[in-house]
């Protein structure tokens, strides 16, 4: 199994505020959809609820501490370990958030698909963990300038564990 964290984070690692993303980047959404479609995706309950439900064409696995939690179209588990056991062992699995789930998964991840949004969000309340450059190697970078559809410049970065 290949475990890939996929996220869009500001220069200060901000992911969002009040359970919402703080930017709208259509090209990043397209890339996210292209990379994750047909795969198992793992997320926390708040991430699921912020998206107004499961993502189509993916197997949605949701981690929650709430024992009796259910959500139609999702597999509900109570730990990252349980989530990984619910995934095929010979495929790439994507961890899509939020901040707590990324933190738990960072040490066991094989790859990070990070969209670095070139801004700082001072009042964010959710953050992506710091990438330790001693443990991770940057293998690809693709820069996108801001335009009429994108308020911020951003760079796709692919990190592979050393």
Automatic annotation (TrEMBL):
<dbReference type="InterPro" id="IPR001796">
    <property type="entry name" value="DHFR_dom"/>
</dbReference>
<keyword id="KW-0560">Oxidoreductase</keyword>
<comment type="function">
    <text>Key enzyme in folate metabolism. Catalyzes an essential reaction for de novo glycine and purine synthesis, and for DNA precursor synthesis.</text>
</comment>
<comment type="similarity">
    <text>Belongs to the dihydrofolate reductase family.</text>
</comment>
<dbReference type="Pfam" id="PF00186">
    <property type="entry name" value="DHFR_1"/>
</dbReference>
<dbReference type="InterPro" id="IPR012259">
    <property type="entry name" value="DHFR"/>
</dbReference>
<dbReference type="InterPro" id="IPR024072">
    <property type="entry name" value="DHFR-like_dom_sf"/>
</dbReference>
<comment type="pathway">
    <text>Cofactor biosynthesis; tetrahydrofolate biosynthesis; 5,6,7,8-tetrahydrofolate from 7,8-dihydrofolate: step 1/1.</text>
</comment>
<feature type="domain" description="DHFR">
    <location>
        <begin position="2"/>
        <end position="161"/>
    </location>
</feature>
<keyword id="KW-0521">NADP</keyword>
<keyword id="KW-0554">One-carbon metabolism</keyword>
<protein>
    <recommendedName>
        <fullName>Dihydrofolate reductase</fullName>
        <ecNumber>1.5.1.3</ecNumber>
    </recommendedName>
</protein>
